[in-house]
Design a protein that fits this description.
four-stranded mixed beta sheet, 14 helices
Length: 381
């Protein structure tokens, strides 16, 4: 039994949610920043994530899960404290509205926690990206290194000689974020009687499609580029072709994963069903052990790469169909968000409906084109 502590922040109102939005973070995360829960509560929230939300085929980013767990733990502490104070447990949606005003104020944060868990656990965005950065607007201009590749090497410098310069510039580096969101309508009667865990399951199912669309956009950006110089599109000159079109041999995978020069190394890859089936049927992959390498050799090669399956959803899925998208996840893709999650509830009185809406801005920068190496299986590029 976890000990519940009296909250340091009380009387959560619209101002709290406005501050969270201005900070560019989810409201549970903002709650955790102001009133963090003990680590054992965070660990318990991680267990909840792994049991209820995690997709075993699509591993989530540990940092994203930890951030979510901190917010969930802070929210759970608040909710449990006021439940004990009111002498009533919140079981149905109606309980959120008719138990205590402090509990009612927590309902938007609870919804946002469900949404965030789904975005992290569904799709591949948290697994593919270097991280997520809160932007100041719906378009982002960031520094990039415009130094020619031939001039990037460190060289011996004579005493008193001028140091070689690396040029960081804002030129040609603006990307635009996309707006994602859904509106959910339900009647007062249907909503009030719903258990909150059942309502959460409905929210998660709806948000899963948003996560699919977001992943498609991320994969599209890795191949088609983000429109900037550093985030150039992949072409037939930058990909690695297989020896025999339509087939994948283990030698193709070896040549592909060794196609990166230092300091890059492919550590993650995304496959469509056709190509993943070809890889899984290779004799070398039917044995799950890391075989064929003597004990004093480093773990390099195709079996050292994490593979993920993606069948696509809406935009950009054709780019995955016959391409194995290999990346150095330290350098390939950066996610940007703007304004945090906007979650609102409207009452449509004449029709006795309640409408939930959520939306947020997100976009991707192909941080360094050299960190993306597609294996072209059927002359897609």
């Amino acid at each position: 039994m976890l000990t519940v502590f009296e909250p340091k922040i009380k009387d959560i109102d619209d101002g709290f949610y406005a501050d969270a939005k201005a900070s560019g973070v989810a409201s549970p995360a903002h709650m955790a920043n102001l009133d963090p829960a003990p680590e054992e509560h965070v660990d318990a929230a991680k267990e909840v994530f792994n049991r209820r939300y995690a997709n075993k085929q699509h591993p989530a980013n540990d940092e994203a899960v930890t951030e979510w767990a901190r917010g969930r733990a802070a929210l759970a502490n608040q909710l449990t404290w006021y439940e004990q104070k009111a002498g009533k447990q919140v079981v149905t949606v109606q309980d959120f509205y008719h138990t205590d005003s402090a509990i009612t104020a927590l309902f938007p944060a609870w919804i946002e926690s469900e949404i965030q868990a789904t975005l992290i656990s569904t799709g591949l965005v948290s697994w593919l990206t270097m991280g997520s950065v809160a932007a100041d607007g719906a378009k982002v201009t960031a520094l990039y290194d415009s130094t020619a590749a031939s001039e990037r090497s460190l060289k011996k410098i004579g005493e008193g000689a001028e140091l070689p310069a690396v040029k960081l510039t804002l030129s040609d580096s603006t990307i635009y974020l996309n707006k994602f969101g859904r509106a959910i309508q339900t009647s007062y009667e249907a909503l009030a009687s719903q258990r909150i865990d059942a309502l959460g399951a409905h929210f998660r199912r709806i948000v899963q499609q948003v996560a699919v669309d977001e992943t498609d956009l991320a994969l599209h950006t890795l191949i088609a580029g983000d429109g900037t110089t550093m985030g150039a599109a992949e072409t037939n000159a930058t990909d690695r072709d297989v020896a025999n079109a339509g087939a994948i041999a283990y030698s193709d995978l070896i040549n592909w994963c060794l196609d990166c020069d230092e300091p890059y190394a492919i550590d993650k890859a995304v496959c469509g069903d056709t190509d993943l089936a070809l890889i899984l049927n290779l004799a070398e992959f039917k044995d799950n052990s890391y075989s064929g390498v003597v004990s004093n050799m480093p773990k390099v090669g195709p079996k050292a790469i994490e593979f993920a399956r993606w069948s696509g959803g809406v935009a950009g899925s054709s780019y995955v169909d016959r391409l194995v998208i290999g990346i150095d996840s330290r350098n390939a893709l950066q996610k940007y968000t703007y304004g945090g999650m906007i979650e609102e509830t409207d009452n449509i009185i004449r029709r006795q409906l309640r409408e939930f809406t959520f939306s947020y801005y997100a976009g991707f920068r192909k941080w360094d084109a050299a960190a993306t190496v597609p294996l072209d299986v059927n002359a897609v590029l």
